[in-house]
Amino acid sequence: MSVSTPTPAPAQVVSAPAPRADRPAAVAPARRSRRRSAATWGWGVLAIVIALIWVFPVYWMINSSMLSSATLESFTPTFLPFGGSFANFTAVIDGSFFGALGISVSVTLIAVFCCLLFAFLASVAISRFRFRGRTTFVLAILIIQMLPAEGLFIAQYKMMSELGLLSNVLGLSLLYIAAVVPFTVWMLRGFVAGVPAELEEAAMVDGLSRTQAFMRITLPLLAPGLVASGVFAFLQCWNEFTVALVIMNAESETLPLWLRGFVQQSASRAIDWGEVMAASTIVAIPVIVFFVIVQGRMTSGLVAGAVKG
Questions:
Q1: Which portions of the sequence form the region Disordered (predicted)?
Q2: What is the pLDDT of residues 122-155, one digit of tens each?
Q3: 241-258 residues labelled b (16+ CB within 10 A) or e (exposed)
Q4: CA distances, 63 to each of 48, 142, 274 (Å)
Q5: Is the pLDDT at 8 greater than 60, yes or no?
Q6: Which of 45, 94, 119, 284 is most buried, judged by most C-beta within 10 A?
Q7: Of 61-70, 95-104, 287-296, where does mean pLDDT reach its minimum?
Q8: 247 and 156 in contact (C-beta within 8 Å)?
């Protein structure tokens, strides 16, 4: 009796699919790359346009400061100061300029230093300590910033008059400090809150006192915040006009008040726009130089202060 073994079925041969002519999977990354490149170029062009819009007034001020008043009043604009001179600068720099410069520098330095000192101590207190009235103090800072400066002029004038500080550098400095400290406290509070208190505690475990730990650990980390706050305080004090107009007289003007004299037209003297632009350039130079010096720390300080508040 023979046993027949079943014959295995022939194996099915699976043929590989023929390659397709189009490969969308490979084309898609290239398309996305081109789109990203186009978007990058578009944003770059937009940034350049915005930068030119912001820079053009500064360029026009410097350009006009080297041109005569007749050239500036012509219907054809002059975008390049060909044939210009520094005559406008020599005309505006006189004895009154140096007096106004000295007053502005003195008031700004006093106000910025005291403002940073008071605001720094206050921001550390409200960020690191819990005490009765802390919330009320923070709310008072916000409310003070909402008050219009014009509504305080009469009270400020009477107070400075009774103290004998009218047309005085110290009196104007006190008003600037009172005006700038609330905003500076609120700004520095975010920087102080962003520095972990555990860093000081670890330093104290290593043998440092609380004061030494604060000076060696926390204060260096707050340097960018102090620079950023100092820049804002400097700009507000240097460019302030209305309070100085109320408190100071013609013999003790700040630079913004000195600049006002060039745009006041009288029956005997017309406005010389070349001198106006030259005076404006002189007033703006310290701000530009100061910003260029501290721009690196200011940028890092603003970013650090936005982390935690």
A1: 1-29
A2: 888 888 888 888 888 888 888 877 888 888 889 9
A3: eebbebbbeeebbbbbbb
A4: 21, 42, 9
A5: no
A6: 119
A7: 287-296
A8: yes
Tokens 């023979």 found at: 2
Structural domain including 192 reads 93-305
Overall domain count for the chain:
1
Given a contact cutoff of 8 angstroms between Cβ atoms, the answer to whether 218 and 204 are in contact is no
C-alpha 217/C-alpha 221 separation (Å) is 7
Specify if 247 maps to a domain.
Answer: yes
Query: Which among 116, 118, 114 is positioned nearest to 106, based on CA atoms?
Result: 114
CB atoms within 10 A of CB 116: 20
Model's pTM, two decimal places?
Answer: 0.76
The number of beta carbons lying within 10 Å of the beta carbon of residue 62 is 16
H or E stretch including 42?
helix 24-64
User: 248 with 167: CB under 8 angstroms?
Assistant: yes
CATH of the domain at 152: 1.10.3720.10
DSSP state, 217?
A: I
pLDDT band for position 118 (cuts 50, 70, 90): very high
Identify the DSSP state of 218.
I
The number of residues making up the chain comes to: 309
| Residue 177 forms part of a structural domain | yes
Residue 215 DSSP class: I
With beta carbons less than 8 A apart as the criterion, state whether 123 and 191 touch: yes
